[in-house]
Amino acid sequence: MTCILHLDSSPRGDRSLSRGLTSEFNRTWQQTYPEDKIIYRDLGHNPVPFVDESWIAAAFSQAGQLTPELKSAIEISDRLIDEFLAAKICVFGIPMYNYGVPANFKAYIDQIVRVGRTFAVTSSGYEGLVKEPKKILVITTRGGSYKDSPLDFQEPYLRAVFELIGIADLTFIHAENLAMGDEARQKSLAEARTAIQQFIEIC
Ligand SMILES: Cc1cc2nc3c(=O)[nH]c(=O)nc-3n(C[C@H](O)[C@H](O)[C@H](O)COP(=O)(O)O)c2cc1C
Fold first, then answer.
1. Average pLDDT over residues 119-139
2. Average pLDDT, stretch 88-117?
3. pLDDT (tens digit, 9 = 90+) per residue, 27-78?
4. What is the rounded distance in angstroms from the CA atom of residue 40 to the CA atom of residue 8?
5. Residue 63 pLDDT
6. How many domains does the chain have?
7. CB contact at 8 A, 199 and 169
8. DSSP for 27-54, written as a single string
9. Which of 14, 96, 182, 186 to mutate to test the pocket of ligand 1 (most atoms within 8 A of CB)?
10. Which ligand 1 atom is at minimum distance from the Cα of 12?
């Protein structure tokens, strides 16, 4: 049985195009592999907290020196990291907001990219601590188009941050031109759906 982690980060509900595409992934995956387990987290409607001063103090303390207060400051982070590590495949639905990821997805990244849990600082630099193979499928939705554009701060950022913790197997499906009229939107969504089917076939 494969464990899949599905995250949505659009604050929109039924009107969200990224949610439509991640549900397409779920539907097809469940039809193909009904025994697999899909864990769902809705960051768009139930965001995780931002890191704060006690979180930072706790993250940089030795495990044996954590007071009950410090332990509770990173309890959510521990839970999110355990959930993330348990998944073999992660599927993230991420709208483009102001060239980057929405704040709720950034808050999630800040919770799971943690010294001593998902990366280490060594004398020769950073070392990713995620050693089990893991695939990440990122489905982005965008009003415009960013092919070969320096304004795409989503894909380079996500590749860099996941590589820091040890994951290089990322696939991006960008549904673009969604604000460029109905024809462009339908074409882009159809291409994204095909790319999702192809991703599932090669998994
Ligand atoms: C606050 C905000 C910022 C946005 N910034 C961008 C942007 O920088 N570039 C872009 O192409 N589209 C931008 N968009 C358009 C969204 O990416 C697009 O509507 C997408 O479909 C939203 O995903 P969703 O349908 O899953 O909610 C923005 C939309 C919002 C609401």
1. 97
2. 98
3. 999 999 999 999 999 999 999 999 999 999 999 998 889 999 999 999 999 9
4. 8
5. 83
6. 1
7. no
8. HHHHHH-TT-EEEEEETTTSPPPPP-HH
9. 96
10. 27
Domain coverage including residue 26: 3-202
- Return the CATH number at 82: 3.40.50.360
> Has residue 139 got a pLDDT over 90?
yes
Please, what's the b/e burial string for 159-185 (b: 16 or more CB within 10 A of its CB; e: otherwise)?
bebbeebbbeebbbbbbbbbeeeeeeb
Helix segments in the chain, DSSP class H = 17-32, 53-59, 68-73, 75-86, 103-112, 155-164, 182-202
What is the 3 CA–ligand 1 centroid distance (Å)?
29
Task: Collect all residues with Cβ–Cβ distance below 8 Å to 115 and sequence separation of at least 6.
Answer: 59, 60, 121
Residues with CB under 6 Å of ligand 1 are: 10, 12, 16-19, 95-99, 141-144, 178
To test the pocket of ligand 1, the residue of 142, 149, 152, 182 to mutate (highest count of ligand atoms within 8 Å of its CB) is: 142
- 3 close to 98: Cβ distance less than 8 angstroms: no
